Amino acid sequence: NKEEMEKGYKKKNFIQAKYDFVDEMMKLGGISPETDSGSTVLDVGCGVGGTSRYLAKKLGKNAQVTGITLSPNQVKRATELAQEQGVDNAKFTVMNALEMDFPDNSFDIVWACESGEHMPDKEAYINEMMRVLKPGGKYVMATWCQRDDREVPFSEKDERDLNFLYEEWTHPYFISIEKYKEIIDATGLMNEVTTEDWNEQTIASWRHSVWVGVYDPRGFIFKPNKYLKCVRDGYCLERMHRAFDRGLMEYGM
């Protein structure tokens, strides 16, 4: 409810919340089984392939979903999970999102969920995704953004908080929602870009992540070093929550 959201948590199964997010992201991108059942889909920065597999199931057997990541271990695990779940129309490969091997105009849908914040060159990241998207194709992304500081410059506290978030999770840098729109517009390949800030819809997940990570005491008993790392991550998640809560960070769509 609203009161719970304002306090920074929401009583929902954490995994279900992720699936709900994908459903809402599909709506934002105009993606559905009715219109895209035979589409080729690229998931940029797929991790262990959870979203790729979900999209492959959702869009049906005639859709072909390809997930790319820099990590061979992630590709291995994503492939194993796809095989275990019988998802034959999702495949995974190691590839640099800034220098993709795909030809121009390869995919009907390009999907990027929480990969932009990790990219050291935002323009190359956007340009490559635009390059491999077919004319008339659909593009949708979700990424952590910092607010636009061109009219109201960052304070010293803002700079300190951003540097902490960069260094703790080794992010190269964030940019604003407005800047992403400008980079996409500059390619000259897309129609007018629709942007939104989904901070209100997603902010509960930061503190929920802390709870999911530390609530089970068995972690401290059996794997104390990893558990202590979770505690450190929990502190960073709380710092991230506060940055979103005061408007320093925005959830860019």
Outline of the structure:
The protein is α/β, with parallel strands linked by helices and 253 residues long.
Determine the number of helices (DSSP H or I, runs of at least 4 residues): 12
Tell me the Rg in angstroms: 19 Å
Order of helices and strands: HHHEHEHEEHEHHHHHHE
- The secondary-structure class comes to alpha/beta
Low-confidence runs of at least 5 consecutive residues: none
Describe this protein's structure.
The chain is of the alpha/beta class and 253 residues long. The chain is 49% helix and 16% strand. The protein contains twelve helices and six strands. The chain has helices spanning 2-7, 14-28, 33-36, 50-59, 72-84, 122-132, 156-168, 177-187, 199-202, 204-214, 218-222, 224-245; strands spanning 40-44, 64-69, 90-94, 107-113, 133-146, 249-252. A six-stranded mixed sheet has the order 3-2-1-4-5-6. Helix 5 links the parallel strand 2 (64-69) and strand 3. Helix 6 packs across helix 8 (177-187) and helix 10 (204-214) packs antiparallel against helix 12 (224-245). It starts with a helix and ends with a strand.
